[in-house]
Design goal:
It comes from Paenibacillus spiritus. This is HEAT repeat domain-containing protein. The protein has two domains: 1-134; 164-278, no CATH class. The protein is mainly alpha-helical. The chain has helices at residues 5-15, 20-29, 40-52, 56-64, 81-92, 99-113, 118-134, 136-146, 152-162, 171-189, 198-217, 219-230, 235-245, 248-251, 255-272. The mean pLDDT is 94.
Length: 278
């Protein structure tokens, strides 16, 4: 994470057992909001410190933060850092939690995936990434528990969580992530396009980059998936393939493969549009 003045102040607040209200004020002051980016450094440091803390007053306060809804803290308001931090803390503490604690933390993260604020949806995915860094088996178990019944926003959260390079350094973990992505793509292709559906738009937005992250980690299996996507009947799947093939993480190291798949995609698109000429 690196050092910073605000992270050091947060550490001191924990060491001195500053009141929960004082911690809240510090987080909101250092949130970086309103602005384009929330302060991930201080949010991550808070999650790390919370996982190490047995400070009851703070634990009780953090348990209330997820209930801070959009009417109390909009996407770009400083107070939104509190439920944001609660999502990260739920992930960092998942591995060490009791079975009941794991259940409640997972429920919290799942609610976060469905929040109308994009920052909270992103925090829920980041919380799962942190859980996976500590114990990938727990993340895998979570995906397997939720995937079959997951709605589009939850599918988006799971895919975003898995498209995290530190988790993909282990071959089997990358393979699991690719299989999960293909399962989500298959479900998307099995549904009729929903005009102006915000959940579908958000899911596709995640798939537009996530497949390339997974393919960069495991090119053989990843490009096999991309080839199947370029040949799909569903135009949405072909557009997702095109978006991923345009990413520099694939286009630079795998230029030949990318060129071949884009050429094949062009032929499929022309055939789908009734243009059979070469």
């Amino acid at each position: 994470m690196g050092s910073s003045a605000e992270a050091e102040e947060l550490k001191e607040a924990f060491r001195s057992r500053r009141s929960a209200a004082g911690i809240e004020e510090l987080l909101m002051r250092e949130s970086g909001l309103p602005g384009p980016r929330i302060n991930l450094r201080v949010a991550g440091e808070f999650a790390r410190l919370t996982a190490l803390s047995a400070w009851r007053e703070l634990d009780e306060a953090v348990a209330k933060w997820p209930r801070i809804g959009p009417d109390e803290a909009g996407t770009n308001e400083p107070r939104v850092i509190l439920p944001f931090c609660a999502m990260l803390a739920a992930g960092t503490g998942l591995a060490a939690a009791s079975p009941e604690g794991r259940r409640s933390r997972r429920e919290l993260l799942r609610r976060g995936m469905n929040d109308e604020r994009w920052r909270i949806r992103e925090a829920a995915a980041m919380g799962l990434q942190l859980a996976g860094e500590a114990d990938f088996a727990l993340l895998r178990e979570t995906v397997e528990l939720w995937l079959e019944e997951a709605n589009e926003l939850e599918q988006r959260g799971l895919i975003a969580a898995l498209a995290h390079p530190p988790l993909l350094r282990v071959k089997e973990q990358a393979h699991f992530a690719l299989r999960t992505a293909e399962s989500v793509l298959t479900r998307l292709a099995g549904r009729e396009a929903q005009r102006r559906s915000e959940p579908e738009r958000v899911l596709i937005q995640a798939l537009d980059y996530a497949v390339s992250v997974l393919a960069a980690a495991e090119p053989e299996e990843g490009f096999a998936l991309l080839e199947r996507m370029t040949e799909a009947e569903d135009a949405r799947i072909r557009r997702i393939a095109a978006a991923n093939l345009g990413k520099a993480r694939l286009a630079k190291p795998h230029a030949g493969r990318v060129k071949r798949l884009l050429e094949g995609l062009d032929r499929v698109d022309r055939a789908a549009n009734g243009d059979g000429s070469d």
